[in-house]
Write a structure and sequence with these properties.
This protein is of the alpha/beta class. The protein is about 35% helix and about 25% strand. Helix 2 packs parallel to helix 3.
């Protein structure tokens, strides 16, 4: 018998504790302190391996602090378990989110219950994408139509995750059918944006939440891209973009692939580990947008305006390096 680990992620501890109790756990084990997210995941993995080596079996749950990186948790634990602990395995990664937080942070409706850091919407979106199950709490705090939109968003962001809800008066209740397991090796690969880019057949719209996929082999001019980022995301023109993910190529950084991510109103543009000379590196842009009433033609037209013109392409990399690039410099020592 294995030591089967259920990992609980989320922004709010009280809601995570409610889910733990509903799953039959009274506590979530010891708190783990670490200086970095990656260290936290590694320390946690080593601690669980040690427990298994000491004879622990059956089910256990781990409560992850809100500041921990859900990507590191999802990737590091299975890797360490495969290398070091054959008697321990990740059973589920359960993301817990309040309906109010989802509406405020991702749908941009009003303000969240309290001041939040600028990276919190992105953290929430990643928790939803790197999960085998998503529990929405306090569902009675939003109107039924808004709850349907939440269900649609979850279905688009993470089609393979089981959706559940929890209110103070009920036990865990499924939105949809039975549990759909995602193997540890597939964490992240079943995210909706990756499936959309890979051509997997998916519903176009779920409960009013649709998708726009954008591809083009040309590079972006960074100054033109930066000039439109603040305005073109506005719902009046593009539709309500709730989440977008993908890979981008900037002319001024042609040797490196960038990771594009928006959650609510926040854009993150970070480096990936992919370089331009790798076989699987995308030639240009591969982006996916999720939201309500998305204007496909407008989004495509605005992004096209940021691409290098024929004359700029012909000018070549030495000329591209002279372009104004307003985006923050990339720290290439720390990227996934």
């Amino acid at each position: 018998m294995l030591l089967a680990v259920t990992v609980i992620t989320g922004l709010r501890d009280p809601q995570k504790h409610l889910v733990l109790k509903s799953l039959g756990y009274e506590t979530a084990g010891e708190e783990i302190e670490s200086k970095t997210d990656e260290d936290f995941a590694l320390v946690l993995a080593e601690q669980l391996v040690a427990s298994a080596e000491d004879g622990a079996r059956g089910r256990t749950a781990v409560h992850i602090p809100a500041e921990a990186d859900p990507v590191e948790i999802a990737l590091v634990l299975p890797r360490v378990f495969a290398e070091r602990g054959r008697d321990v395995a990740v059973q589920d990664i359960v993301a817990v989110a309040t309906a109010s937080d989802l509406r405020a942070l991702l749908f941009r409706e009003g303000a969240p219950d309290e001041a939040v850091d600028v990276d919190i919407p992105e953290k929430l979106a990643l928790q939803l994408e790197f999960a085998t199950a998503v529990v929405v709490t306090d569902t009675d705090a939003v109107p039924p139509i808004e709850l349907l939109e939440i269900r649609g968003l979850l279905s688009k962001l993470n089609p393979s995750a089981t959706q559940l809800e929890l209110t103070p008066a009920t036990s865990l209740r499924r939105f949809d059918g039975g549990l759909r397991r995602t193997s540890a090796e597939m964490f992240g690969r079943t995210a909706g944006w990756m499936l959309e880019l890979s051509g997997v057949p998916l519903p176009t719209t779920v409960h009013g939440i649709g998708c726009v996929a954008y591809r083009d082999p040309r590079l972006f001019h960074p100054a033109r891209l930066a000039a439109v980022v603040d305005s073109w995301l506005e719902p009046a023109d593009a539709g309500l973009i709730v989440r977008s993910r993908g890979l981008v190529r900037l002319a001024t950084r042609a040797d490196r692939v960038g990771s594009w991510s928006t959650a609510g109103e926040v854009l993150a543009l970070d480096p990936t580990a992919m370089t331009s000379w790798e076989v699987d590196t995308p030639a240009g842009q591969e982006l996916v947008f999720f939201g309500r009433d998305l204007n496909h033609d407008y989004i495509t037209r605005v992004l096209n305006s940021c691409l290098l013109s024929d004359e700029e392409l012909i000018a070549g990399p030495r000329e591209w390096e002279t372009y104004v690039d307003p985006f923050p410099a990339w720290n290439l020592e720390h990227n996934h």
